[in-house]
Amino acid sequence: MELNSDNTTVFCETCVCGKSFNHPGRLKFHQRTCSRNKKRLAGALEKAKETWMSRKKRRLLDPDRTDGPSGEALHLFDVPSSVEGVETEDETMGGHDVVLRAQSAIENLEHSSVDPNPLSLAEGRPRRQNRQLPKRFRDILPVSLPFFSPAPLHPALPPSTPLDPSAIPPASLGPASLTSRIRQLFKTPKNVFGLSRQYDSGQPPSHDPEEQVDLHDLSDLPSATMTADASAYHRFGNIFNPYPNQNSFLLGDWHWNHGIQKSRESFSELLKIVGSPDFHPADVRHTKWAKIDTKLAKNNFDDRSDDNAEDDAEWMDEDAGWNKTPIHISVPFHSRAKKPGLQNYHVGDLYHRSFVSVIREKLSKPEDVRHFHYEPYMLFWKSSDTSDNIRVHGELYTSPAFLEAHRELQDSPGEPGCHLPWVVVAMMFASDATHLTSFGNKKLWPAYLYFGNESKYHRCKPTCHLCNHIAYFQALPDAFKDFVTENMGNKGDIKLIITHCRREVMHAQWTILLDDEFIEAYKHGIVIKCCDGITRRFYPRILTYSADYPEKVLLATIRDKGNCLCPRCLIPKSRVQNMGMKRDMQQRESLARIDDEVRRHKVDTAREIIYRKKFVINNQAVEALLREHSLVPTPNAFSRLLGPLGFNLFPIFVVDLMHEFELGVWRALFIHLLRILNSVDKALINELDSRFRQVPTFARDFEDLLQCAIPVFDGLLPEPHNSAILQLLFFCAHWHALAKLRMHTDDTLKIFDDITVRIGAEFRKFSKKTCPTFTTRELQRETRAHKRRSAKKRAAGGRPVPAAASASSLKADTPRLKNFNLHTYKYHSFGDYPNTIRKYGTCDLYSSEPSELEHRTPKGWFKRTDRRHFIKQMACIERRQARIRRIRARSGAGSSTQCEQCANTPQEHHHIGLSQNQHQHIGTFLRTNAGDPAVKDFLPKLKRHLLPRILSMLQVENLQDQTLLTDIQLPTDIQDCDPNSVLFLYDRMYEHNLLRINYTTYDVRRSQDAVNASTSHYNIMMLNKPANDNDSDNDYPFKYARVLGTYHVNVVYVGPVITRLCTMDGTRKSSIASTSPQSTRLKALVLLIHRQSYEAVMSYRPLPEDRYTVTAKECPVALMMHQTGGIIIFVDRDMFMRYHYGLGVGHVYAHCPSSTGAQQSAEETLLDEDVEASASDREASQMENEDRAAADSDSFSESGSEHSLDRYDDSDALAEDPEDDGDDGAMDEMYGSDYFEP
């Protein structure tokens, strides 16, 4: 301060750089941008770090030692009153004054003797990996099912049946003893999600795979592929045998198990091998690679006479090698044929593996046995303390089918003198023919085996290698037609013989697979010593078989599209369209197919007529026996070999959602809707295409087309047909979403029952009322395809192709009339889905999708073959890769695939990148958006938004590290803190394109979604909590928002506690507000900078004219909006369950009784509607129920996660702002007046 001539005080201060200022605000702003002042501050911080670390080191070495002149511990920021130049009055000071106080304290300690510390600021700071988020950011992580309670166990007997302990024989009597006859229950406590287990046993199982489950096992995030525990394997002399050393093994593993098409990632793996310090070229220079590959590919059909056969014993004892067995069938020719009687025909060779050997190999792998369930259990869910236990359906080992097989085994007489535990091995078969090339006729018909004792979340991952290739089926060769023609002459139908022999070939091959060894194991079990040292007896049981419909009828030995076209029941084809009616649902049980002696006798009688009496296959006597129930004169291998043991083959042919609905009924409905549009106006097809082009890129298959079909088809047809079609599409999407769930409860299955009834009524209404109104014909593509097929058939029959079949004439032909057909098996199968889930578990267990995905494996192997004898070579490649994986597991060698740590850590709530390449100056940002209400008082609000999170971070650090903040008292009230104590480094905020959010799904899994403000993946959803209980206008359970940007800021906190440099990240977002819970029309976009505790600044922007905007599927909420404002909830399973409020097991926020009672699921009112309700009533009811739906929010947009700024350990980064423009004049307007003045 200085005095003027009139004795008035005038402000005059000089900066360390020499400039003088006569206004305090300009001095403060200049000091923030002054290079010399920043260098001085950086040096002070570095000295403070050295002093801090030296004193901390002395305290750790000598806890009783005290520093300071008075014998008390001197804290760095406890500034004494005698320090010169520091004011001690109790007054409110600005953030910059606090920095000056800290600098003065540091200068007072400059002359203290400190020990040199070579550690940087980042290296010296303690690691805090478990830092807690603020409460409203915390997300309940998935946990494994509850472990066993140490409490005493008691049998679950009725009170009127006391159990006399003296009457119980010793446990050594085995499962067939008296104690096994008495049903005992063992229950575990429930976990945080309310899940508990119940075993049909009086004691916990000896092996609990849930103990091995961690968060990564419960996560769908991409994670590092870890190597197996090598300690579980018996150590051999050379653990890399037949490779001579580790380096040669690593190269062989890289060549065979890292794919045939080498990528950049695969090249990096190769560089890690050859660039390792342990790699020596001499180790691989003389390796005999061809001999090793031949040794690894040995199978049972190879010659075992060579001298090195003994070296293979280490894996051949427990290795399921491939066998080769010739396939022979007897072809019947009737008495009028050229060569009547039976003729033997050699179809080819079947390459297969022994089922018993596959089971032994599976149970010898420690990495697989970890997750192998020896005992099934029932899974229950109790959402609250006042609710009842609800049965949960998810895995096969929790299904009634598995439990029934387990109880039947435990109650059986058993083996004499056997005291071993008895275990059911649940076998799940799948088979499907596939093309090996995009162009060509090379095909493969693989059969796969899965084990239901393992979790479906592991089985569905190809990287887990849990799919066992057990056989490569042979089909009738093309030369068989010549064989039939030669023996038949022109006396009969060749196609009838070929169709019959196809069934014969299939069951001849299954007769080979169900060999005597397997039948013996089915009766008496397989004794195996498991990896835990316990010897058990395993009984294989076939529970499911997944295949498409043509293969199902082949395996079930029924007629394709016959009178009774279902492989599970005997409902006639004429009543198939009644799916969902009460009588139809009852007849599915009363008319279920049973493999009994009556059926077998009919088949044997028909076969005797054909084979011994030399009648034609379709003669009247045979038809009278078999036609009523659509039987065929082929003995079923499953029935003949396993039927006498009590096996019923028909229930194993479970439903297949992909082929029956997505590629079946829904595909047929979609094509017929196109025909309807084409019949009304051909321009409507172009309008439909235009609307679909506005859908983001996720719409790639029929499943995705169904999810966005409602807004796309809306308004294309006149009323009442428009409303009827929208209603049908809604119930199709609703039914499909329920069928796709990975976790069902009894409550959701009741909903599924009701929706199944309703979708049947809607399809019948569509077929009877909507379809007859329009004259539908084939589409152009259907017409051309039909003509091509006709021309191909004529050419195959030796008849000349007429000129009318040319490509130019195909377009001119009149399309045929086409009607919508409900008399199909695929439509009939809809009624079996709820009960199938109740018996076997959810549809993803036995869907054909995993087997379709597994087809990629043999297609990759095919590229390594010579394309001629490829089946034998593929069998060798399968064994070679499996044995290399076993060597890797037992040796512990091989590098694990490491992914980016933060983005793939499931316990983190969200993640943004570390890059600071894209930054915005806060002042420039505010100037650019001047006039936008969104940036009004942006900076003060941002500070008030960050301040409680900084204090929360410091509070956690105080609790976790008592050596640093022992005597520091944190403020208990936010109002006691000055927001100006938050400073932004360089006045910058750093922008990120991608924001990843982790969240807990309805099925208690950890999943991840990505939000990108620069693409169409920018929509989010948040839980909407009313301000008070009486706020009826704001009781809609969730909010929607559009993310405008994702940023992080580097913050320096200079408050009364301690100076810290940290990073805060956050997102800017805009919400989509609804006028009321009953109105779903979207009115405006609301820009929301901070919500909940702070006032929202709204900027109304009109919606685009386009009413058919569909958002990205990868977004956490993935909203789809159409003209009525309704929200399509079917975009994924988790989104769907959020609208079924209170029914998602993993959605803990909805489990409280008050919220459950207040919310209603989306289908309650829908199911109360009459089937014949008017279109307007149906539409109003649909919209009302969508408004009532409730959902959770992963509240990731509050920008609450803090990261320690370890990357800013270099003091030079604080020295100078590289973009300091020195603009002092406009700062008051941009930052607000309270930025400079407290």
Automatic annotation (TrEMBL):
<feature type="compositionally biased region" description="Basic and acidic residues">
    <location>
        <begin position="1175"/>
        <end position="1191"/>
    </location>
</feature>
<feature type="compositionally biased region" description="Basic and acidic residues">
    <location>
        <begin position="1200"/>
        <end position="1210"/>
    </location>
</feature>
<dbReference type="Pfam" id="PF18759">
    <property type="entry name" value="Plavaka"/>
</dbReference>
<dbReference type="InterPro" id="IPR041078">
    <property type="entry name" value="Plavaka"/>
</dbReference>
<feature type="compositionally biased region" description="Basic residues">
    <location>
        <begin position="784"/>
        <end position="796"/>
    </location>
</feature>
<protein>
    <recommendedName>
        <fullName>C2H2-type domain-containing protein</fullName>
    </recommendedName>
</protein>
<feature type="domain" description="C2H2-type">
    <location>
        <begin position="10"/>
        <end position="39"/>
    </location>
</feature>
<keyword id="KW-0862">Zinc</keyword>
<feature type="compositionally biased region" description="Acidic residues">
    <location>
        <begin position="1211"/>
        <end position="1227"/>
    </location>
</feature>
<feature type="region of interest" description="Disordered">
    <location>
        <begin position="779"/>
        <end position="808"/>
    </location>
</feature>
<dbReference type="InterPro" id="IPR013087">
    <property type="entry name" value="Znf_C2H2_type"/>
</dbReference>
<feature type="compositionally biased region" description="Low complexity">
    <location>
        <begin position="797"/>
        <end position="808"/>
    </location>
</feature>
<feature type="region of interest" description="Disordered">
    <location>
        <begin position="1160"/>
        <end position="1238"/>
    </location>
</feature>
<keyword id="KW-0863">Zinc-finger</keyword>
<feature type="region of interest" description="Disordered">
    <location>
        <begin position="109"/>
        <end position="133"/>
    </location>
</feature>
<keyword id="KW-0479">Metal-binding</keyword>
<dbReference type="GO" id="GO:0008270">
    <property type="term" value="F:zinc ion binding"/>
</dbReference>
